[in-house]
User: What shape does this take?
Amino acid sequence: MQLPLLEDNARFSCGSCTACCNQPWRTMIEADRAAALDRHDWSRHPALMGRRFYQPAADGREGYFDLAKGEGTKCLFLDTDGLCIIHKELGPDAKPKMCRQFPYLPSRTWTDDRISLNFGCPSVQKAKGDILAAQREDILAVTPLSTRPHKGIGVRVPLTGTSTISHEQYESALNEVLRIFGDDRPGDVWSRFETLLCRILELFPAIAGQAAPDIPSVTGQPPQKSPMPARLLFAATLYPDTISADKTGRVGFFKRFTLLPRLMSLAQLRGVYASRLLARNIAIDRVVAHPVAGELEPAATRLLLRYFRSRFWLRNLVGTRLPVIAGIHQHIHDFNAILFLARAEAEHQGADVLSEGIVRKALTCVEFHLANQSRLYEQTLKGYLRGHLCDARLAFQSLRLMAPQPAEANLSA
Assistant: This one.
């Protein structure tokens, strides 16, 4: 079996911060591990007495249950010392697989398997701990990898919904992306994405009968005046924040009736919604009108550059689950979601700068609950959402959707 690639310079050691154990998400546990909880004597932990340890999986997945919550969003088995009661009593192998694997993040590409890290973890954000290469055995013990053969270098990689490029062109472009987002190059995150999109457009003339789309002129404007498809893609990215954790994971027949009106309402970028991730009501008008500096703090920029380098290296969207243009476009809307939640936090605090701390909190929300969960385009409205994600021209128009606007621009809106 081919060993997976581990991201160079990625670092992690658990700091027992309990961030992953105290989130408004579902922790899924396998049926055999759930049964082991029922058989165990928990009398040494009075807080567990008389409690129901799990309930049926909210998404209906067979063979799994959802672990119960304790106080607030804390896992029921999070002890007062910040350690896992299951681990203490039954050992690490008794914990749910998703707990044992976190924060290791696997991805399958056309030619190999790769493992990076989930940036929802504070230790990962701060690059604390050992490099992954020093943890290879531990990582492989808890990270499942497919045994299916890879397609290989002869594969044609989707560039858009209707065109492909060679694997060599694909790898060359993705390696260039890592340089574009390098710390040694000038420019903010927005300019890096613009450079990336221009680089990808250079691939179009190499495709028979294809012409590169023209680059639209995108100037600073209130987000409500951005094209509706760009706002709908943003709404689809942020949508899980508008519903409770037990409603995520599956879009059933009846949910589709309420989904589109909710999406359209969110895409208007007006009104109020109850944010699951920030645990308060968010007045969208106030968030986008709240003036903040047009530039992020340098430390926040460095964090986001490292984050996107990791994601492009992992190739978990671009050219794999989505065509190249669509994957880049989705990363842009993940960036927009980070910016929106950061601006919401800045408005809440009365801050006028998107500081490193504010951006860290927003990145944690997006990584835990949006970017590494099932996407809406994988569940419903697939043709519509994927079609617009493949629109390179729209990707340029999406890029500055949530970019901070000068105070005078907000007032003129």
Q: What stands out?
A: Residues 5-142 form one domain. DSSP finds 16 helices and twelve strands in the chain.
